[in-house]
Amino acid sequence: MKILVIENPRPLAIEHYNDVANAPLSASLNSGYALAIARRAGWDPAYLDLTDCQDDEATISGRILAENADLILFHWVYAWGNENIVQNILKILKEGQSGLIGAFGLFPTLACQRLSEFAPGLDFILAGEFEATLDELLSKLSASNSFHSIAGLYCGNGEFVSRERMSDLLQLPIPDDVGANCQFPTMNIAASRGCFGDCSFCFINQYYGCRKRRERSINSFALELEFRLKRRAVNNVYFIDPTFIGYDEKQSGRAKEISCILKSHNLPFGFETRVDTINQDLIGTLAANGATSIFLGIESGCEAALQRINKRITREQIIRAVRAVQGSGITLSVGFIMFEPDSTLAELLENYTLLEELDLLSHHDQTINMLYHSQIILYGSRAWSEFAEQGRLNLDDRLPFEASYKFRHADVMRVCNAMRRLSTKYFTRMDQLYHNQKIASGSQYDCRHIQSPPGVKGDDLNRILKEAFLAFIKFVGNHDNRQFKLLESGFLNALDSCFNTD
Ligand code: SF4
């Protein structure tokens, strides 16, 4: 029997250019695991990556039907209001007498019931960690045509039994290497799943159904690495674990051991971890063993905000962790939620002060990401229920799976909106520049990898972003709407002037 795993079309939304909240990094291996599970179950697996596909729905449906699959499985990532594309494809597929159709991933898990009403063409949704559910589904379908009463499978009839998370990650097969990942010399790999944190904005624990981090054995990691290195040329590895390192000495030892394995393959690597899991000694060892990049979700520079989002870290820990990385030669990226729903203007300034102190506002590429992010609310998330209860959700009928919220302080909302418009202008101009330069260079290089591509006055751009942020805070309380708009358009024009138009 044949299964077709599909990445849904995800048109670029410039206002969500750099937002990653619609799918955690770990989702990048979901389709690879689904394909490997299917092969192990004796099915014939096929894969269709429609991520960047701009064909119309009829053309896409024709391609899908031509595969003649018994089971079609969408790895459905939230596409910022473009969900109707899959909705329409499903209608055409059903008219075309396709096989069974299902969906899996973070978005179908969070929005399970609402999504199955929105897209009645779906026969089922694999809710939560999907591998064991898919395994059982495929066995049942091989034996008979029945697929009901499977834990973890939502069939839209109101009966749903959740599935216990996998007790041992050894049950996972080696994932296929497919999709956009394979265009890059970086190989994504997982050494663990889940997180012991409980940040209010995060979906990881909801997806896995627990607040636990599960590790795989180091031996199984080493075997997978060796196996996958034979498949394609790779020159570095990135860990997609929500937090690569755990808390205690044993955990530091484990991270060091894994880094030694990578060193023996001469492979640099990157990872994400909580700030309270690292120290100078550990970072030094990992750097010596080839760590080249690290992502830390520091989120805020203000103790009260850190507590509100339940980050369970302190400003002191953030400073220590950032300094440890900055002295190590490892490239640091940080996640930062500048505009938290209850932020005050004083807290925005506190955030800014810490970012300056930590030298995290020295390049426009980083500065824009520090100064504009606000919390994103997806349907089905904990934040959605909390804001709904407080009457603070701003709903929009055209966006059934996404909402914004009412800020506690109107002035913070005005600053946030002004920074969002500035960031949209920034990303639009950058995108045009990348596009034009790619055409001019005959696609010989991807200038996204150059921090300040030719055609940008980088220092001026960085200064303008910082000045705009501070000016918006300073003047928001004593400028009426018209004056504030004038201030804003002055900065938008100044930003424009940093890009050469020829
Ligand atoms: S530390 Fe990161 S992965 Fe863990 S709950 Fe918080 S945001 Fe999520």
What report would you give on this structure?
- Helix 1 (30-40) packs parallel to helix 6 and helix 2 crosses helix 3 (84-95).
- The strands form four sheets. Strands 2-1-3-4-5-6 form a six-stranded mixed sheet, with helices on both faces. Strands 7-10-11-12-13 form a five-stranded parallel sheet. Strands 14-16-15 form a three-stranded antiparallel sheet.
- It has two domains: 2-154, Cobalamin-binding domain (Rossmann fold, 3-Layer(aba) Sandwich); 172-406, TIM Barrel (Alpha-Beta Barrel), CATH 3.20.20.70.
- The protein has 502 residues and is α/β, with parallel strands linked by helices.
- Helices cover 42% and strands 14% of the residues.
- The chain has helices spanning 30-40, 57-66, 84-95, 106-110, 112-118, 131-143, 204-208, 218-229, 249-264, 280-288, 303-308, 315-326, 345-357, 364-372, 382-389, 410-440, 458-475, 481-496; strands at residues 2-7, 44-49, 71-75, 100-104, 124-126, 153-154, 186-189, 192-194, 213-215, 236-239, 269-273, 291-299, 331-336, 377-378, 393-394, 402-405.
- The longest helix has 31 residues, at 410-440.
- Bound molecules: iron/sulfur cluster (SF4).
- Iron/sulfur cluster binds next to loops.
- Iron/sulfur cluster (SF4) binds at residues 195, 197-199, 202, 204, 242-243, 274, 297.
